[in-house]
Amino acid sequence: MARRLLPLALAATLAVLAGSRCAIAAEAAPWAPAGISSPQFESHPAFDPQTGDLYFVRSSPQFSGWRILVSHCDAQGWSTPQPPAFAGPGVEADPYFTADGKTLYFISTRATGSGKSKDLDLWRVDRNADGSWGAPVRLPEPVNSPGAEWFPRPGADGWLYFGSDRPGGLGGNDIWRARADAQGRWTAENLGAAINSAANEYEPLPSPDGSRLLVMADGGLSLAQRAGAGWGKSVKLGPDVNANGSEIGALWSPSGKTLLFARDTGAPSSGELFVWHRKGSEDWPPQCPSAADASHAP
C-alpha cells in the first residue's frame, strides 16, 4: 500500500508555506512470507544474527496460548516453524537477540507451567561455543517481580528495558528498566511520566543506536527521543503505522531505518506482520530465498 503523493511542485510549495521541510513516509505494508503467515496470530519477530533463522510468536486468533517458534531459510523458502531447543512448558513469547547473537531474551511461565500471563517472568538463554543453546536462566529480583513482566529489550545505554504491572507504576502496566552493577546487584526503575501514563504501556524497544525508544501501548505505537540519560515525551506515530491501535511486537532493522511489527487485522487472517520503511527503502526484512538464491535455482 503506497500513500498517494502530492505533485512535487505543490508539495514543495506547501512545505515552504508551512515553514517546514517536506518529509515523505510510506505506509506500512504487509509482510507475509509463505510458511510463516497463517490463519493464526503471528507476532514478535526476531532474526538470529548468527544463523539468519527467524524466531517469532504464534498464538490463537484471539492472541492466547503464545509459543515461540523458529524457522530457517533454505532454497525452498522458510522451513516449517518448530519450537526452539530451549522451549519450556506454559506460555512463552517476546524473543529478542543481542546484537552479537550470543544471548536471547524472552518471557515465560515455565517456572510454574501456567498458561496465565500473571506468571510471566523475564528469562535469558546463552549460546554455547558450538552454537547450541544452553539452559535458560530466570533473571533475578528486582528485574522480575510477583507481577507480570513483558518484552525484555537491552538498550545501547546498558539498561534492560521491559514492561511490568508490578506495584509502583503510574498505570496498569508501565515501562521499566533495570541493570546490574559491577558486583552483579540489580536495580530497577520506572521510566516516569514522559513514557508512562494511567493507561497501559506494555513493550519498550530501544533503537540500535540508542537515540529513540519505541513504546507499544493502548492505542498503538509511540516514539520517544533520547533526552540526556532519560527520554523525552513519547509521541504517537501517525496512521502510516497505527491503523487500529492493535500494533505490537515491533523489531527495528539493524540500521534503525525500518520497523517490523504485528497488527491484528481481524478475520480471516488475525494477527499479521507489517513492515514500515521509516527512512527510505532498504532490503530488510531478509528475503527467503534471497534474490541471489532464486537466480541460481534450477
Question: What can be said about this structure in brief?
Answer:
By secondary structure, the protein is mainly beta.
What does this structure look like?
The strands form six sheets. Strands 15, 16, 17, 18 and 19 form a five-stranded antiparallel β-sheet that branches. A four-stranded antiparallel β-sheet has the order 1-22-21-20, with no helix packed on it. The protein has a four-stranded antiparallel β-sheet with strand order 7-8-9-10, with no helix packed on it. By secondary structure, it is mainly beta. It is globular and about 50 Å long. Helices cover 5% and strands 37% of the residues. The two termini are 32 Å apart. The longest helix has 11 residues. β20 and β21 form a beta hairpin. It has two helices and 22 strands.
The low-confidence runs, each spanning 5 or more residues with pLDDT under 50, are 1-24, 294-298
**What class do helices, strands and sheet pairing give?**
mainly beta
Rounded mean pLDDT is: 89
Question: Sheet with the most strands?
Answer: 5 strands, antiparallel
Distance between the termini: 32 Å
| Overall geometric form | globular
Helix content: under 10%
Number of helices: 2
List its traits:
298 residues; mainly beta; five-stranded antiparallel beta sheet; four-stranded antiparallel beta sheet; 2 helices; globular; disordered N terminus
